[in-house]
Structures are given as C-alpha cells and as structure tokens.
Structures
1.
Amino acid sequence: MNRRELLKVLLLGSALELLTEAASARIRRTVIYSVRYSSNGERTRIVLDCSGEIPKRRIREKLKERELWLEIEGAGAVRRLKKKLKSPLVREVTVYPINRRRTKVKITLKNYHRFKIFGLKSCRGKPFRIVVDVFPEFIPISCKVRRVPKRVVVLDPGHGGKDPGAVWPVRSKHPTIEEKRITLSIAFKVRKLLSKRSDIKVVMTRTRDVYVPLLKRAEIAAKECADAFVSIHADSMPNYPQWSGVTVFKASPHLFAKAERTAMAVAKKIRICNDVMCWSITPTLINLSTTVTFAESSKLAEAIVRDLKARVNDDLVNGIRDMQRNIVVLKTPGRPAVLIESGFLTNPLDRRRLLRSSYQWEIAKGIAKGIEDYLYSLNNVALIEG
Ligand SMILES: [Zn+2]
C-alpha cells in the first residue's frame, strides 16, 4: 500500500465514522415524521407519529381564535407536513419544523371545540404518538328576530344510513328490525300532525335514510333557532328483556352547567330575544340563560309525558329521566331539547307494537300534542339567542 492508497483508506475510514455518527445522532434525535387522522360525528383524532418519546410537559398548547397551536420541545420534524382533513371539526393540520429540537403544530378548527392532548407509548410495532382529540362543543349561534311569529320545532329521527341504531335480533348482521326506520316513521307522523298548524314550522334533521352526525343535528337546532328540539329513538336492553315502554329524557343539570362554562369561555355577550326584540347580556348572565333552558326542557318533557299518557296505555309511559350520558343533541343552550326512547326492541311486546302503524300513530299523537301544549305555554317566555 503506497501513501496515496493509505491516505484514501484513512479518509474513507473517518468519513465512515462520521456517517455512522450522524446516523446514530439521527436515531437518537426525536422527530415527528407523519400526520394521520380519523373522524366520526363525535370526535376527530389527530395523530402525530414520533420516532421517540416526548414527555407531556414538553408539549405546550395555546388556543388563538380558531387555531390550536402546539409547541413541542425536544423534537424536530422531518419537513413541513400539511394535511387537509375531511372532518366536521378540523380543517387542517400543519407541522412546522423550527429547528432540530423544536416543532410547532397548527391545528385549524372549524369552530370553537373542546380538545384533549396526550401521548401514547410505543407498543406492538406502533411508534410513540402525540394524540389530539377534538370534540364538538355547542355554542350559541346568533338568531334573527322572526318577522312572522312562527314557532320552530326540530324533529330529529335518531340514527340513519350506515348507523342503524338498535337492531333486532341483537347484534345481527342482517337484522329484521332497525331503529333508524322506526324513528323516521314516527317522526314523519309527528310532522304530519304538526304541519296542520300554520303557526308552527317543522324542520327535520333527516327525511331519508342518511347518516347525520350528532353535531350537525344540534347545529340544525341552533341555526333554525328551534323553540323545541325533539330527538326520537328506540332502545335496546338485551339483559333486561322485561323493560318496555316509552321514556322521555332531558339533559341532567350538570350537563347544562358544562355547556354554560363553555359558553362563558367563548361568548363575549349573548342576546336574549323574544319575537319582537333582542337585547344583549353579558357572560355573567349566561347562567340565567342555561337555567332557563333547563327549566324549559323540563317543561317540554313534562308536556310530552302528560300527552303520551293520555294516548298510549298509561303503564307504557315510563315518565321523565335525566340523561346522564353526554348527549350532544341535548346540549343546546337556549334550545329546549328532549330525547324520546319510544320502546325497547329487546322486549317482545314493544317490538311488535313499534312496527305497528297504529301504535306509531299513538306515540306520534302524544309527542305532537305535548309539543303544541309546550309551545302554547311559551308565549310569554323570552327566547334565548346567541
Ligand atoms: Zn337510538
């Protein structure tokens, strides 16, 4: 080996050394290398895949208007990553590499929403992930004063399309009974009954067998400035086949307290309107508006139960229950809302009854009369507007 060759080998060696050093540095350095998401009506999940773990304290969040910013210390990004989302909640996610150990992430929300950020440890071949879950949060939408004093009722036939709701036989792939058909059929009957009134406008969240996300349903209630929002469902309780009858649910007070807190956080002021005028109130008074809504939802539920009892066999009306679950459609501040479970597909008698047109009419008549009675009582109550 002459000097020249020796030099070559030496140079190559140090170059190799440098290369491996760089490679191992790259392995040690944590980078965000991809953005993924999934979305359904209730939640949009954004996932940032990372090459290493990032402690929660290294992730700072900041909400600027409708932009949620994450500042991540201790991680770079392979390059600028941008993703447009097909989601009702989030428009876009962009990952901006600032330097090798700092990254900013911009999540553009379509509206004010709740979110949750957490890390998922690497497992079963999956890398460490930063997860951002975005949940819908209802906020009041401004309502125009109605020129013609018509009351607006939004009827919400539960489920639809890819979501059949409860089915019979339970968990069957090819069910003979689907909740979505029963709810639509009852809702049509209620609409028919209410349409006879020239002073009531009926809006339906769906009139076909289509999937409508829950947020969209609540939005329809808000945009239409509904005086009453009535969601129609049928239940399934495989472990309690003896359970039967119609139940009317209203949101429990603590759900309203939650909605109120959000409203406080985002609303500068809200307006209270009746049919002829509006006036503004400050957030300190929002408490009042949600209390009014809660009281109004109870009144609507009571009226429907009373009228159901007059039409459907008394024993079959279970009365009013507080909905403990976090139901989006019942969280409409300013819009009185109830959810009606018209019967149990898991109860043999209910199952037969619910398919009968005559029984569906009985329930529909009870619901329609209850809504009418409630609206009548409303004449002197101010409507709450966002
Ligand atoms: Zn249902």
2.
Amino acid sequence: MGFSTSKRVLILVPLILLVISLSSLNAASNFIDEARSLLKWKASLNQTNPLLSSWILYPGNATNTSSSSHLETNASPCSWHGIRCNKAGRVHVVNLTSYGLKGMLQEFPFSSLPQLAHVDLSVNELYGIIPPQIGHLSKLIYLDLQINLLSGKIPPEIGLLTNLTTLHLSENKLNGSIPRDMCQLRLLEELALHMNRLDDSIPSCLGNLTNLFWLSLYNNSLSGSIPREIGKLSNLVELDLDTNHLTGSIPSTLGYLKKLTVLHIFDNQLSGPIPEEIGNLESLWI
Ligand SMILES: *[C@@H]1O[C@H](CO)[C@@H](O)[C@H](O)[C@H]1NC(C)=O
Ligand SMILES: *[C@@H]1O[C@H](CO)[C@@H](O)[C@H](O)[C@H]1NC(C)=O
Ligand SMILES: *[C@@H]1O[C@H](CO)[C@@H](O)[C@H](O)[C@H]1NC(C)=O
Ligand SMILES: *[C@@H]1O[C@H](CO)[C@@H](O)[C@H](O)[C@H]1NC(C)=O
Ligand SMILES: *[C@@H]1O[C@H](CO)[C@@H](O)[C@H](O)[C@H]1NC(C)=O
Ligand SMILES: *[C@@H]1O[C@H](CO)[C@@H](O)[C@H](O)[C@H]1NC(C)=O
Ligand SMILES: *[C@@H]1O[C@H](CO)[C@@H](O)[C@H](O)[C@H]1NC(C)=O
Ligand SMILES: *[C@@H]1O[C@H](CO)[C@@H](O)[C@H](O)[C@H]1NC(C)=O
C-alpha cells in the first residue's frame, strides 16, 4: 500500500514538472509567434520610422543568453513602440497612427493576434484592399483606418466584428455599397465612412444600430432616399449625410432623434419641405 502510493508520487512529480515546463514554453512561444507575425508585416511595409527600430526579436546582446527570462522578456513585442499587451502578455493594442507607413494590409497578422482589441492605423499611406481576413479579429472593439489610400469594397466580413464600438474607415478610396452585414455591429457607437467613393443606397437596416451617436457618410456617391429607419437611432448626436446624390424628401422620422445636435444634409438632391418634426428638435444645428 505505502509502496505503491510513494511510487505513484514519484511518477506524478516528473509529470507535473513536465506539464509546468510545457505550459511556460507554450506561453513563450505565443509571444514569439505574435512578435514574428508583426515583424513579417513590418517587413512588407515601406517605412523609415525610427520608432519601428524597437521592433526586433532579441534586442539584448547575445552575451546575456544565460538569463532564464531571456526568452520571455526579449522575444515579447510588449515593449515595442505602438504595441500594448494585456496582463497575460498578449498583444492587445496596435496603435501606429501617423507612423508614415506605406504598404498593404495583406500581411497584417489577422489570424495571429487573437486578443487584439484596439487597432489604430490611421493617417498613414496604406493602400490596396481591406482583406476579408479582418473578420478573424473577433475581440476587436476599436478599428481606425481613416486617412489612408485603401480601395476596393468594404469586406462584408467586417460584420463579424460584433464587439466593435468604433469603426472609422473615412478618407480612403473605398467604393461599392455599404455592406448590409455592418448592421450586425449592434454595439457600434461611431460609424465614420465619409470621404470615400461609396455608392448605392443607405441600407435601411442601419436603423438597427441604436447605440450610434455619430453616423458620418458625407462626401460619397450615395443615392436613393434617406431611410425612414434612421429615425430609430435615438442616441444619435450627429448625422452627416451631406455631399452625396440623395433624393426624395427628408423623412419626418428624423424628428424622433431627440439628442441630435448636428444634422448635415446639404449638397444632395433632396426635395420638399423640411418636416415640421425636425423643427421641434431642441439644440439643432443644420
Ligand atoms: C519605398 O518608398 C520610396 C519613397 O517613396 C521609393 O523611392 C521606393 O521605391 C519604395 N520602395 C519599395 C520597395 O516600394
Ligand atoms: C546584460 O545583462 C545585464 C544584467 O542583467 C545588464 O546590466 C546589461 O545591460 C545587459 N546587456 C545588454 C547588452 O543587454
Ligand atoms: C554585443 O556587445 C558587444 C560588447 O558590448 C558589442 O561589441 C557588440 O556590438 C554587441 N552586439 C550587438 C549585436 O549588439
Ligand atoms: C493612438 O495613439 C494616439 C497618439 O498617441 C492617441 O491619440 C490615440 O488615442 C491612440 N488610440 C488608441 C486606440 O489607443
Ligand atoms: C466579444 O468579446 C467577448 C469578451 O472578450 C468574447 O467573449 C466574445 O467571443 C467576443 N465576440 C466575438 C464575436 O468573438
Ligand atoms: C473599386 O475600386 C477597385 C480598386 O481601386 C477597382 O478595381 C474597381 O474597378 C472599383 N469599382 C468600381 C465599381 O468603381
Ligand atoms: C470630397 O472628397 C474629395 C476627396 O475624396 C475632395 O477632393 C473634395 O474636395 C470633397 N468635397 C467636398 C465638397 O468636401
Ligand atoms: C433590422 O432592420 C431591418 C430593416 O430596417 C428590419 O427588417 C429587421 O427586422 C431589423 N432586424 C432586427 C433584428 O431588428
């Protein structure tokens, strides 16, 4: 009895040690995978930003390899400029706004950064399409790609990012229609698609995004009428639909937007009177 118990313990101890060392190895290799995937994207970019010289795998000198924490501290991207990690050391924020990046999003590690929640790549010279793989970033809360040179259609896969509260794709060269899939983004508070080349009509299902407080679609080639359903956006503070090819009359349902303070609808082909209901709105700037 005593013999077999101690024998079991003897077998268990190395097993536990093996499990512990395997899981710490696993954590370290996660950091390295995340770092490598970011470096692969960096290598695809044409950039000369000195801040990005902090993006290297082993900043320490090779003479320091004896340190046991070497692998984890040096291979982790958490200390790189523009990167922030969560407590578990996984990449949580990529913020490279105004870094002078020239290149495409094709090599961006959409599938290698499972904890990524905030992406700000605004004000760079990113061109080419927004890859459909962007739909893999399921933890994303904040996505800002504004003021770049991105073209092609907005991928419908963006509708998979149901945790998004902020989506800024404005001031690019995006064309095609506003995907209906965007109406799945129920937590969205800010949707900015202005200054692109979007055409077709405004999807009426955008009226389901009842958390929106800013909807900005100005300076595109949107046609058709302003959907009555926009009147369901009861949290809307600013609505910018100007400089498009919108036709028809201004829906009276806009009168339900009690929080609206800015309504921009000029420079369209709208007809008919301004509905009385809109006149009832307090604190409105047209
Ligand atoms: C990188 O950008 C510079 C300046 O715009 C340009 O001269 C060079 O050809 C580009 N290199 C590549 C590989 O695109
Ligand atoms: C090597 O490690 C020592 C002690 O941790 C540190 O003082 C030194 O700056 C390191 N050298 C390099 C080149 O990282
Ligand atoms: C490593 O450290 C030595 C001595 O401090 C230095 O001469 C060498 O350039 C360093 N190597 C790198 C890759 O930083
Ligand atoms: C990104 O960095 C800029 C400038 O440092 C800052 O204003 C902005 O709030 C940051 N965005 C995110 C999502 O952290
Ligand atoms: C949204 O975030 C929560 C919490 O991080 C996560 O559990 C959930 O899977 C995310 N949603 C999607 C569609 O992945
Ligand atoms: C949309 O933009 C892409 C890429 O610039 C272009 O190839 C395509 O012809 C454009 N489509 C339309 C309908 O303009
Ligand atoms: C609309 O946007 C284009 C660039 O996309 C810009 O050149 C033009 O001046 C803008 N028009 C207005 C009226 O803002
Ligand atoms: C979303 O909006 C569309 C069109 O306005 C409507 O038919 C649909 O029932 C709405 N869906 C939900 C879940 O509210």
